[in-house]
Amino acid sequence: METETKQAELDRPQKVRGAQELKRQDEQEKQLTTLNLGPTHPATHGIFQNILQMDGEKIVSSEATIGYIHRAFEKIAERRPFYQITPLTDRMNYCSSPINNMGYHMTVEKLLGITVPKRAQYIRVIMMELARIADHLICNGVIGVDSGALTGFLYVMQYREKIYDIYEEVCGARLTTNMGRIGGMERDLSPRAISLIKEFLKDFPKVFAEFERMLNRNRIFIDRTEGVGGISAERALNYGFTGPNLRAAGVDYDARVMNPYSSYEDFEFDIPVGTKGDIYDRFRVRNEEVWQSVRIVEQAVNNLPEGSYHADAPHYYLPPKQEVYRNMEALIYHFKIVMGEIDAPAGEVYHSVEGGNGELGFYLISDGGRSPYRLHFRRPCFIYYQAYGELIKGSNLSDAILTLSSLNVIAGELDA
Amino acid sequence: MTLTNDYVLDKITVQFGEDAIWGAYTPDGIMTIFTNRESVVELIQYLHNDEELQIRFLTTLCGIHYPEQKDRELCVMYQLHSLRHNYRIRIKVALPATDPVMPTLTKLYATANWMEREAFDFYGIQFTGHPNLIRILNVEDMEYHPMLKQYPLEDQTREDKVDTYFGR
């Protein structure tokens, strides 16, 4: 039965799928069903609500409601000292927390005028690229799940766990990492961390190649994803798309290359682009980015410079604990930093990093106080999720689910 | 060619006059200019259409509240990006709190839709011409705009969190 419907679907002329045609049919039949997709639906992978108007299996229109996990981070940030804001950024895109943490740290460093040593920058690059791999593994694994292939998801998830082991070794936490500090990392990469990273680099490519072999040229998977949920480059730019979703539409904008930060200019890597901006292209672009991230991590680990893992900025960077017990100056700095008695200079900065799903920007205004006067997060998910209604108009419900997972909308980042 | 701040500033000042473009400063390498709400949409449209500038990407938009500045308490910040030249520019419009009305940018940028709804939700800025200006992140029946500075973050009746104990 299932396959017959599928076949009939494929045999239908393409124009029947168009919204105009649907509208005409509706006027004839006048039978639309309202369907609440979400807020808690297992297939939406997060708390999103979409009120769909359905004509049979086809979506005629949709209305998105967001804000279910809004936690007022921008408001909270106006009251906290700078170092206490890092844990808030963890909870935005919780699939790649280190990128958020370090993006925020770099923004504050830009405000304070701190230059971070090369070694710290390389460690950051390693952690950010591992985070990108973890983020893309989830997204692409889930695309597989939503199109009916659970195997790939479970298989690559083991390697996400290995990335989390590396996080744990570097900062002590796995999911909401709170990694690094303003001015660098809180500790150097331990020998165990380096061996875990090297082990990951040795084993992961084989596993990921298998994952790709299962889906990349899989006829069933291509039939489900090619030409579905597509967006043109022009519309994507108008909608403020960034990251893999924009690159899948054929625009080669990547913040790591256009405005390099944290020594990204030292590394050799390619920016994959798609052509049609559909689910298949997004999937392939993310897969290729995983390979490029592996390349970057390899280069960074093998060329890790000697030197300090943090900047010399005693006003903002916590002194080592042993020093605090023995040294008066260190004790004073420790106390002042922890109690939030350190005033940042007045200023206004914008810094953006290439997050797991696009340009993650931080717009920070300081009035010279202990906490930001205004901190605005440019959250890529929030910005591109508004195109979802346009992407799913006229498609099947099952394709809409797949479109949602291919956009990689993370509820925490959407609602901040 | 690369665009420089001075060049862009000259170009738009010639186009719009000194009445509409003022107060340019460069806090972090990104030129920030002030304009008035009558010219802002036209200005962003010009930056978009000009073949030389090609500033065609709205990176972000947000509200800011300065309660001390009389008659210019609210501010809307637009940040635009030219992907062609990798050039960013920031445009600010100051508004009085008694009349927080702005023209919408949704006709030019689809992405401005939710950004403007967010600015409305947080700061109560009314965007005229917006297709669906309702709250986006907070609940519908909220009676205030929470990011305004007069609304404190913490419950003011609590006695275990006195500011002086926390250095603030």
From TrEMBL, chain A:
Translocase keyword on record: yes
Membrane topology value: Peripheral membrane protein
Known EC number: 7.1.1.-
Pfam families: Complex1_49kDa
Keywords assigned by UniProt, alphabetized: Cell membrane, Membrane, NAD, Quinone, Translocase, Transport
Chain intervals for the UniProt region annotation (Disordered): 1-28
Reactions performed catalytically: a quinone + NADH + 5 H(+)(in) = a quinol + NAD(+) + 4 H(+)(out)
Family matches, as Gene3D superfamilies: Cytochrome-c3 Hydrogenase, chain B
Chief subcellular location: membrane
Subcellular location: Cell membrane
Iron found in the keyword field: no
NADH-quinone oxidoreductase subunit D domain sequence ranges: 146-415
InterPro entries registered for this protein in UniProt: NADH_Q_OxRdtase_suD, NADH_UbQ_OxRdtase_49kDa_CS, NDH1_su_D/H, NiFe-Hase_large
PANTHER family in the cross-refs: NADH DEHYDROGENASE [UBIQUINONE] IRON-SULFUR PROTEIN 2, MITOCHONDRIAL, NADH-UBIQUINONE OXIDOREDUCTASE 49 KDA SUBUNIT
Similarity comment: Belongs to the complex I 49 kDa subunit family.
Function: NDH-1 shuttles electrons from NADH, via FMN and iron-sulfur (Fe-S) centers, to quinones in the respiratory chain. The immediate electron acceptor for the enzyme in this species is believed to be a menaquinone. Couples the redox reaction to proton translocation (for every two electrons transferred, four hydrogen ions are translocated across the cytoplasmic membrane), and thus conserves the redox energy in a proton gradient.
Subunit structure: NDH-1 is composed of 14 different subunits. Subunits NuoB, C, D, E, F, and G constitute the peripheral sector of the complex.
Name of the molecule in the record: NADH-quinone oxidoreductase subunit D
Gene: nuoD
Automatic annotation (TrEMBL), chain B:
Coiled-coil parts of chain: none
Superkingdom per UniProt: Bacteria
Species whose genome carries this gene: Pontibacter silvestris
Domain called NADH:ubiquinone oxidoreductase 30kDa subunit: residue spans: 35-156
Family: Belongs to the complex I 30 kDa subunit family.
Keyword Transport set for record: yes
Protein name from the UniProt record: NADH-quinone oxidoreductase subunit C
Cross-referenced PANTHER family: NADH DEHYDROGENASE [UBIQUINONE] IRON-SULFUR PROTEIN 3, MITOCHONDRIAL, NADH DEHYDROGENASE UBIQUINONE IRON-SULFUR PROTEIN 3
The entry's keywords: Transport
Classification lineage: Bacteria, Pseudomonadati, Bacteroidota, Cytophagia, Cytophagales
